[in-house]
Amino acid sequence: MNSKVFVEVTAKHDIYGNVRPLSIKWEDGRVFEVDRLIDVRQAASLKGGGVGIRYTCNIMGKQVYLYDNEGKWFMERK
Asked: pTM for the complete prediction?
């Protein structure tokens, strides 16, 4: 089973080029709001492979990593 899950993301783009994810749509159709953005940095996904901008987010009280790889968003499957 692939440990990388591609997700649909609703994000805010500001005039400076910053991107802030607001919500994610999981593969089963459930939508989760991003409660808090903790960190943004260039990083590799150790579980799923691939690199991109890693967004460390709080969603429903849990810290998760959301990756943007040139417009394709993914998360690591637990």
From this structure: 0.89
What percent of the chain has a predicted confidence (pLDDT) above 70?
97
Q: Bridge-partner residues for 62, per DSSP?
A: 59
- Which structure tokens are listed for 76? 């690591």
Nearest to 31 by CA among 8, 61, 54: 8
Q: Residue 20's beta-bridge partner residues?
A: 12
CB-based burial of residue 16 (10 Å sphere; 0-12 exposed, 13-18 middle, 19+ buried)? exposed
Q: ∠ at Cα 48 (67, 39), nearest 5°?
A: 30
Count of domains forming the chain: 1
Range of the domain at 52: 4-76
Q: What is the pLDDT of residue 68?
A: 94
